[in-house]
Structure formats: C-alpha cells, structure tokens
Design goal:
The chain is of the alpha/beta class. It is built from 16 helices and 12 strands. The strands form 2 sheets. A 7-stranded mixed beta sheet has the order 9-8-7-6-10-11-12, with helices on both faces. α4 (101-117) links the parallel β3 and β4. The longest helix has 23 residues, at 394-416. It is globular. Residues 165-168, 170, 209, 237-242, 261-263, 320-322, 325, 345-347, 372, 375 line the site of NADPH dihydro-nicotinamide-adenine-dinucleotide phosphate (NDP).
Length: 447
C-alpha cells in the first residue's frame, strides 16, 4: 500500500514540486484515502484522487491600486476553482503577504473535503492576494478591494463561485467587495457570504467558525464523558476564529488563558473573561491594534514576544491563527503538560509531525476540515437564505450549525474508528469527505 501512496505522491510532486503546503495537504489525504480506494471496487482504477488534485481552473490576475499618497501599487490576485462536482465553488479569500499558489491550492483542496462534510451542496475554491492589509487606511483597503473585484467579478456568481472571508478579509472587506460586484453586474445576489446583517448576511456567520470548532471539540470529549466545563484552554490567534472560539469556550464554563498574533502571545492566569474578550474584539476589529496591548489594560497578564502559546499548560488547545503554527516539539510539550484535546480552528495549523504525535499519544485530535467547517457551513446557510429571500433567527441558525457539527462528528466516527476504539478523525474526515465528491464525479463521467 505504501508503494501505491508513494507512486501517487511522485506523480503529484512531478507537477507541483515547488508547492510545499499543497503537497503536505495532499499527502495527508493520500495516506488515508488511497487505502480506502484500493479496498472499494467502485473507486479503484478511476484516478479520482489524481483528478481531485488538479484544480478545475486557477485564475491569476493583476491588482493595481493607488495609496493615500498617490503612489501606484501592484499586487497579485488569485482564485482557485478546485472542484464543483457537488455544487458551486465555495471558499474564502485571504489577503496576506505570504499568499502564493501553493498556499491557496492547499486551502482549496482542503475546502473540497470540508464542504463535502458539511452535508450542504458546495464545491471547493479559495482565493486571495499577497496584499498586506496591516497599516492601511480604510480608503486604501476600499480601493484595493474595488480593484480586486473589478477583475474577480467575471469569474464568480451565485451559481458559479461564492467567495467569503479568511485571514485579512472580514466584514469591512466583504462590504467593499460586494459593493463593486453589485455595481459591475447591476444585480443584488448572494455572490459573497459574510455580508452585513442588514444587506443579506446571516446571523451567526461571524461566530460560526469559532463556535463550530468548540462544538466539535465538545463532541469529541463527550465520547468519553468529558466536557469544556472547568477546563483550561490555550487559543492561538486573536482574529475572527480565535475570538469566537474563546467566547464559546467561556460560555461552556472553561478558562481561556492565551491569545496571540504574529508578534507573540499573551498569558492571563486569571482567564480571559467576557469583559476582557470585549476589549480584545474592540482592539482587533476596530482599533486594529496588536495583542501585546492587552497587558497595558490588564497588567497582571504577560506578553511573550515571538513565542507561541503551546508552551503553556492546558487540557484543550485550539490553534486558530494559521498553517503550520504548531510543530512536533510543540505537540510533545502539550502532551507532556496534560493536553487531552486539540481542535483545529485554523486550516492545517498542526504540522504532520504534530498530528503524528497526537495520534501516537491517542489524544483527541480534530483536523480543520472537520472542526472548522462550521464557518463555511453557515456560509452555506447564508446562501440558502439569500436564495429563499428569507432570514432565519439567531437561534435557528445556531441550532442548524450545532446539528451540522454533530453530523460531521458522526461521519468521522463512522469512517475513522480503529479496531482498538480510538477515533482517527483525520482518516474519518478525509474518507467521509472523499466519498460524496467521488460518487458525484463517477456519476458525471470523465470531465
Ligand atoms: P483573521 O485575519 O481574523 O485573524 C488571523 C489571526 O491569525 C491574527 O491574529 C493573525 O495575527 C494571526 N496570524 C496570521 N498569520 C500568522 C502567522 N503567519 N503567524 C502567526 N499568526 C498569524 O483570520 P481568521 O480568524 O478568519 O482566520 C484564522 C484561521 O482560520 C486561518 O487559518 C483561516 O484559514 C481559518 N479559517 C477561517 C474561517 C473563517 O470563517 N474566517 C473558516 C475556517 C477556517 P496578525 O494580526 O499578527 O497577522
Ligand atoms: O476556510 C474556510 O472554510 C473559510 N475561510 C470560510 C469559507 C466560506 O466560504 O465561508
């Protein structure tokens, strides 16, 4: 079996040798899905996975924009339309200087499996730009977003491709992007998700990824009679996902002791309560400040410059910042400190060495394509509401989100339970996500 997996990876590497993040994501899927394909006659010999690693379309474009001083800048824009076998392409836009083809292809590939797991009819895509929003004025952000959409609009549509937010793209950016799309097309449709509540957005969408990550972790703990109540939690990041993962963890009676950004992390031994979290939300979402400023207001907390939260003692770790932010050494430290559960809020935040360490220690580990799927699932619910021209209440959307996270958990148990009873959520999520897309691709023929 290993020879089969190696041969497959050689073929992918021959094409995409210079795309390390993409290869990392593909390798993880290949290791679990190729043995499944080999033992299931309907999928065997059809090169389905080989077709799935090639984007249906990859669009790259120039984004020129003018800063407040009148200087002209050029960035690169992308949209990877990975797979539309089960629905329109769906996935976020990332604005961050690290963005390149490898990162967007890994994200688009993961998105195909994640969206399939949500039970909703959505294909997978991802896009963005190497634009750095840090330090830019609102006017500069607006001009960049308008320029970006002045090209992207011709490739997307409510039945074709529906982008949303990701790192560096939140409510403000979705507003500017939507405004330009509406003007160019002269139509008001659900072409983007994460819209404002007064113009087509869904209740709970801002909260959904973070809440879903915690709902999923709570489901994992429940398999052994555990819960969040009274547990100590470390969270990384301090953006959208980290904020709402923290909020839900607090609501479930846990103590969150860390938050971070790319400069370092803060440790608050007393726990980040609702008031402190409100302070963080204002700091990050309105003043667009740095997490280190937390200690100016709460001096008993400590800022650890250039470090990640994984050196702190916790029972549950929620990595919610970015890819490969938690490595094999971090994993060993966490396990040594008594961590029993890791639920990925970010996409691929744990390196393959870290994931191997969690599996070896047989602790609960949820891969992002399962545990952070609540965000895109609620985007799917936003699309449904837009099509119906109807609005569900907060409670209705939250109930549906919880149901979807329960369903994803069940699918992972169904496909990922090992002979000794240990649940390999990576295997479960990959196979369950694969089956639905593969069945659709088989039914539609060689296209
Ligand atoms: P935000 O832009 O709101 O926040 C990103 C956070 O991560 C910031 O605190 C940022 O710090 C930190 N961060 C970004 N890059 C790095 C880096 N290279 N090293 C250390 N810290 C970094 O993004 P989101 O919260 O939306 O996204 C976070 C993660 O969750 C991403 O992996 C994203 O793909 C994933 N995700 C998001 C979903 C959503 O609905 N938004 C859905 C599913 C997954 P700084 O300010 O210093 O850059
Ligand atoms: O990674 C992700 O799932 C997202 N950034 C959310 C995508 C979406 O379409 O809501």
């Amino acid at each position: 079996m290993q020879a089969k997996i190696d041969a497959f990876m050689e073929e992918v590497k021959a094409r995409d040798a210079h795309e390390p993040e993409f290869l990392q994501a593909v390798q993880e899927v290949a290791e679990t899905v190729i043995p499944y394909i080999a033992s299931n006659e309907i999928y065997n010999g059809k090169n389905i996975l080989l077709r799935m690693v090639e984007p249906e379309r990859a669009i790259m474009f120039r984004v020129s924009w003018v800063d407040d001083k009148g200087e002209i800048h050029v960035n690169r824009g992308y949209r990877i339309q990975m797979n539309s076998a089960i629905g329109p392409y769906k996935g976020g836009l990332r604005f961050h200087p690290s963005v390149n083809l490898s990162i967007l292809k890994f994200l688009a590939f993961e998105q195909v499996f994640k969206n399939s797991l949500t039970t909703l009819p959505m294909g997978g895509g991802k896009g963005g730009s190497d634009f750095d929003p840090k330090g830019k004025s609102d006017d500069e952000i607006m001009r960049f977003c308008h320029s970006f959409m002045s090209e992207l609009f011709r490739h997307i549509g409510p039945n074709t491709d529906v982008p949303a937010g990701d790192i560096g793209v939140g409510a403000r950016e979705i507003g500017f992007l939507f405004g330009m799309y509406r003007k160019l097309r002269n139509e008001f449709t659900g072409v983007l998700t994460g819209k404002g509540l007064s113009w087509g957005g869904s209740e709970i969408r801002p909260e959904a990824t973070g809440y879903g990550t915690v709902y999923f972790a709570e489901n994992m703990l429940k398999t052994k009679g555990g819960s969040f109540k009274g547990k100590t939690i470390t969270v990384s990041g301090s953006g959208n996902v980290a904020q709402y993962a923290t909020e839900k963890a607090i609501q479930l009676g846990a103590k969150v002791v860390t938050l971070s950004d790319s400069s370092g992390y803060i440790y608050d031994a007393d726990g980040i309560d609702e008031d402190k979290l409100n302070f963080v939300m204002k700091l990050k979402n309105e003043r667009r400040g740095r997490i280190s400023e937390y200690t100016d207001t709460y001096p008993s907390a400590k800022f650890h410059k250039g470090k990640t939260p994984w050196e702190e003692k916790c029972e549950i770790a929620l990595p919610c910042a970015t890819q490969n932010e938690l490595n094999g050494e971090d994993a060993k430290t966490l396990i040594g400190n008594g961590c029993i559960c890791v639920s990925e809020g970010a996409n691929m935040p744990c390196t393959s060495e870290a994931v191997a360490a969690f599996h070896k220690a047989k602790i609960f580990f949820a891969p992002g394509k399962a545990s952070n799927a609540g965000g895109v699932a609620t985007s799917g619910l936003e699309m449904t509401q837009n099509s119906l021209r109807f609005k569900w209440t907060r409670q209705e959307v939250d109930d549906k989100l919880q149901q979807i996270m329960n369903d994803i958990h069940e699918k992972c148990v169904e496909y990922g339970t090992e002979d000794d009873g240990y649940i390999d959520y990576v295997k479960g999520a990959n196979i369950a996500g694969f089956v639905k897309v593969a069945d659709a691709m088989l039914a539609q023929g060689v296209i």
